[in-house]
Design brief:
The protein is an alpha+beta fold. It folds into 2 domains: 112 residues, Uridine Diphospho-n-acetylenolpyruvylglucosamine Reductase, domain 3; 230 residues, Vanillyl-alcohol Oxidase, Chain A, domain 3 (3-Layer(aba) Sandwich). It is built from 13 helices and 20 strands. Strand 7 and strand 8 form a beta hairpin. It binds flavin-adenine dinucleotide (FAD). GO terms for molecular function: FAD binding; oxidoreductase activity.
C-alpha cells in the first residue's frame, strides 16, 4: 500500500522518471497461480492494472498506472535450464543480466536483450540480442509462452498449442494476457566471445557513419556472427558527440575478423574489446544508462542507405544543438540493422506479427532517437519539437522512397502507432486473436498502458494522468 517501503521502491524503480506514477497499490506475485487469481479479481471488479517487467519502457504508464494496481513481476524470477532439450524456462521478473549469468557457466546463451538491467518486456515486442543477425529476434526464439488470459486461466501458447496466440504474442505486447514464463531456445557457445565497446570522437564521425552502413549491408549480412550496436551520444552541456559502439564477434577468437576491421582502423579514442562472457558484456553495456531523468524515445525504419544515415544524423546533431540550453540535455541516436536473414529466421521459426516479410529481401535500418533531460518541467518545450523533428526525418526518408512502415515497439514513442505499422494483415490477425481470447477487451480496458491494439482505446502516455517526480512529489496533471 502507499507509504510502505515496497510501494515507494517499486513505484520509483524505473529507467525513466516519466514512469513514476501514482498507483493505488503494488502487487508482487511470486507464482502464476497468484497472477491468475489477481487477474480474475481485477476483471470481476473492473479494476485497472499495469504489468511491470524490468521497468525500462520510456512510455509513460507503459508499466505503471495512476490509481489502479501496479503488478510488478520481480518476485517471479526462476530459471530452469533443460540441458537435454536445449531450452531454458525463464520467469518474467528476470533481467537480461541474470539470464546471461545463469547460462554462461554452462557455455549456453539465449536470445534476449543486451543490457544487464533490462527486463523481459521485449519478449512480447521484438528483442534485439547479440546474436540477432544469426538467430533473428528474441520473439523468434521463444518456444513456449505461459500466459494468464483475461478469464483467469493459465495457458500455453506454442507452435502446436494455440499457435494463433503464439504468433500474436510475438509483437503483440501486453494486449493478450500476463506472461508468467517463457521457454527460450538455448545455443551452445565456447564460454567466451570477442567483444567490447569502442568510442569514436567527433572527428571520426563521418567515417563512422560510413562504417555503420558497411556494418548493416556487408558485415551483418555476410557474417551473421558479427554484431554491433552503433550509438551517437550528444552531450548538450559540452556540445560534443561521442560514438559509443558495442562491437561483438560471437565466437571465441583473439581478434575481430577481417570483415570487421573497420572498427579497429577508424580512429577511435578507446576500446574495451577483448574476450569475455555475455554477462560481462551486458554489464558493461549497461554502464551509462542509469535509472534517472526524463527519457523520451521515438523510432522508425528505413531501407539501409548510406546518404540517408548520414543526413539524418547530421540533422539530429543540429537539432540537438538548438536545445542545448536545456539542463543536462543528452541525445542518443542508434542505428541498428535488420538483415534479410534475421527476417527469414522469424519466418522459419513460425512467423511473428511484425510484418517485415515484405521488405523485398533488403536490409532495413532501425533509426532510434532518444532524449534525456533532467527536469520534467522542460518537457513541454522540448518534446513536441522532438516529435516534430523525428516526423520531419520520416518525411525525408519517405521522399527518397526509403521509409518502411515498421516501428520497433520496444523503442517506440507513446503516440507512435506501432501495431498499425505491422500492416493490415497482421492487425486483422491480432484483432481476431483478441476476439477469441479476450472478447471483452480486458487487456485494453483494464490494462491501458503501453502500445495497444488499434481502434480499441486511446493510447495512454503523455496525453493523460498525473506526473510524479522521483521524490514522489506530484508535478502536475496532464490534460
Ligand atoms: C538501457 C536500455 C537498454 C536496452 N537494450 C535493449 C536491447 O539490447 N535489445 C532490445 O531489444 N531492447 C532493448 N531495450 C528496449 C527494451 O527492450 C524495452 O524497453 C522493453 O520494453 C523493456 O522491458 P522491461 O520489462 O524492462 O520494461 P517494462 O517497462 O517493465 O515493460 C515494457 C512493456 O512490456 C509489458 N510487459 C512487461 N512484462 C510483461 C509480462 N510479463 N506480460 C505482459 N506484458 C509485459 C509492460 O506492460 C510494458 O508495456 C533497452 C532499453 C533500455 C532503456
Amino acid at each position: 500500500m502507499r507509504n510502505t517501503s515496497t510501494y515507494t521502491f517499486e513505484n520509483r524503480d524505473y529507467w525513466s522518471s516519466t514512469e513514476i506514477r501514482d498507483p493505488g497499490c503494488v502487487f508482487m506475485p511470486d507464482s502464476a497461480d497468484k497472477v491468475a487469481a489477481a487477474v480474475s479479481l481485477f476483471v470481476k471488479n473492473e479494476c485497472k492494472f499495469a504489468i511491470k517487467g524490468g521497468g525500462h519502457s520510456a512510455i509513460p504508464q507503459a508499466a505503471n498506472i495512476d490509481d489502479g494496481v501496479l503488478m510488478a513481476m520481480k518476485n517471479m524470477n526462476k530459471i530452469n535450464i533443460d540441458f537435454g532439450n536445449n531450452r531454458v524456462r525463464v520467469e518474467p521478473g528476470l533481467t537480461m543480466g541474470s539470464i546471461y549469468a545463469a547460462l554462461d557457466p554452462h557455455n549456453l546463451t539465449a536470445m534476449v536483450g543486451r543490457f544487464e538491467n533490462v527486463g523481459l518486456g521485449l519478449i512480447v515486442g521484438a528483442g534485439v540480442s547479440y546474436r540477432v543477425n544469426q538467430e533473428g529476434f528474441a520473439i523468434d526464439n521463444v518456444l513456449n509462452y505461459e500466459l494468464v488470459l483475461a478469464n483467469g486461466t493459465i495457458v500455453h501458447a506454442n507452435a502446436n498449442q494455440r499457435s494463433d496466440l503464439f504468433r500474436a504474442l510475438k509483437g503483440g505486447n501486453n494486449n493478450f494476457g500476463v506472461v508468467v514464463a517463457v521457454t527460450l531456445k538455448t545455443i551452445k557457445y565456447d564460454g567466451k566471445i570477442f567483444a567490447g565497446i569502442v568510442y569514436h570522437p567527433e572527428s571520426s564521425l563521418s567515417a563512422f557513419s560510413d562504417l555503420v552502413y558497411d556494418y548493416h549491408t556487408v558485415q551483418a549480412v555476410k557474417d551473421p556472427l558479427t554484431h554491433c550496436l552503433p550509438q551517437y551520444g550528444y552531450n548538450g552541456t559540452t556540445n560534443t558527440t561521442v560514438a559509443i559502439t558495442t562491437v561483438v564477434y560471437n565466437a571465441n577468437v583473439d581478434r575481430l575478423p577481417p570483415i570487421m576491421r573497420g572498427w579497429e582502423t577508424t580512429p577511435y579514442t578507446s576500446s574495451t574489446v577483448r574476450k569475455r562472457t555475455y554477462h560481462e558484456l551486458s554489464f558493461e553495456s549497461n554502464e551509462g544508462y542509469p535509472d534517472r531523468d526524463v527519457q523520451e524515445q521515438r523510432v522508425f525504419t528505413v531501407y539501409a542507405d548510406k546518404k540517408l544515415y548520414k543526413d539524418v544524423w547530421l540533422a539530429y546533431r543540429k537539432w540537438l544543438e538548438g536545445y542545448r540550453h536545456i539542463p543536462s540535455l543528452y541525445g542518443l541516436h542508434v542505428v541498428m540493422p535488420i538483415t534479410p536473414r534475421a527476417v527469414q529466421e522469424g519466418i522459419k521459426k513460425g512467423h511473428n506479427s511484425l510484418g517485415l516479410e515484405d521488405n523485398g529481401g533488403k536490409v532495413l535500418g532501425i533509426l532510434y532517437f532518444g532524449l534525456t533531460i533532467s527536469n520534467i518541467e522542460d518537457t513541454p518545450l522540448v518534446l513536441p519539437a522532438h516529435t516534430a523533428f523525428v516526423e520531419s526525418m520520416k518525411r525525408l526518408a519517405a521522399s527518397r522512397g526509403l521509409l518502411h512502415r515498421y516501428m520497433m515497439l520496444t523503442y517506440s514513442g507513446w503516440d507512435q502507432n506501432v501495431i498499425e505499422g505491422y500492416g493490415p494483415d497482421n492487425v486483422a490477425r491480432l484483432l481476431a486473436v483478441q476476439a477469441k481470447y479476450d472478447p471483452t477487451h480486458v487487456f485494453q480496458r483494464l490494462v491501458p498502458g503501453g502500445q495497444k491494439l488499434p481502434g480499441i482505446c486511446a493510447v495512454n502516455g503523455w496525453g493523460s494522468g498525473t506526473v510524479v517526480g522521483r521524490d514522489g512529489k506530484l508535478l502536475g496533471v496532464e490534460a
